[in-house]
Amino acid sequence: MAADRAVWLRAKLGTLDIGPAPPRLLRDNEILVRNGAVAINPVDWMTLVVGDVIFPWLTYPFVLGSDVAGEVVALGAGVTRFKVGDRVLGHAVGAEKSRNDPAEGAFQTCTVLLDHMACPIPASMAYETAAVLPLGLSTAACGLFQKEFLALDYPVADPQPNGKTLLVWGGERREQRDPARRGGGLRGGRDRLPEELRLCEGARRHHSLRLPERDGGGRHPARARDAHPRRRARDRRWISQRLRRRRQRVRGQQIRRHGDARRVL
Predict the structure, then answer these.
(1) Separation between Cα atoms, residue 217 and residue 219, nearest integer Å
(2) Within a 10 A sphere around the Cβ of 51, how many other Cβ atoms?
């Protein structure tokens, strides 16, 4: 059997390279998953561009990535929800401050997962379909149920009214009238997307992105432009400003919620 490999980020603002991934002994309530598919999220490339702005606690070398889907190949002590051979999806939390462990990053052959951050998937669901779910579900759950945010009641099989009201403000659905349809029916915004970004039809839906043609030197023009040092520096400044403004907005909400009279700059 081939040795396990990982995509390593060797240093802050460094480049990625593929190298061996030495195995780690499983701790209590951990499972080892041989990845069938992984997903890339914006936070992954942002970490390459802005360095420690997002995860200042990371110790290098490190393995990035959050979303995995694959087969369970080993169990740690105390795991009862899974058995070897189960097909699962999981949220790899290696970049969390309390974990900070490259063995728990997604971009490698096998990933260590906390058993409560994994979920069985049916045989009819492809790994490519399952791998896009974990981080999105975790993010939504944080916003809905954590005390720092909406703090809603957990879902139950037999829900009862609790007398509370939730106002959803700012939802949007973009539609346009289709004159070709009888009565001027509505046509969703998907039909107006460029061909390169339309979703493929069928059970397995992926974003299809067509790269630009290569120039005479065999390079993609967009890639050659993005690789310029000044452009990367500008991108880092722009992302840093956005993150700083977001932190200020969140801090302002916390101050208003808790009645703090301190001024938010």
Answers:
(1) 6
(2) 17
Query: Among candidates 116, 122, 153, which has minimal Cα distance to 134?
Result: 116
pLDDT tens, 169-191? 876 666 555 555 444 443 444 44
Degrees to nearest 5, angle at CA 72 with 71 and 73: 110
Burial 173-195 (b: 16+ CB within 10 A, else e): eeeeeeeeeeeeeeeeeeeeeee
Q: Kind and range of the H or E element at 54?
A: none
Q: How buried is 157 (Cβ within 10 angstroms: 0-12 exposed, 13-18 middle, 19+ buried)?
A: exposed
Q: Per-residue pLDDT tens for 106-140?
A: 999 999 999 999 999 999 999 999 999 999 999 99
In 10 A of CB 25, how many CB atoms? 10
Rounded CA-CA distance 131/92 in Å is: 11
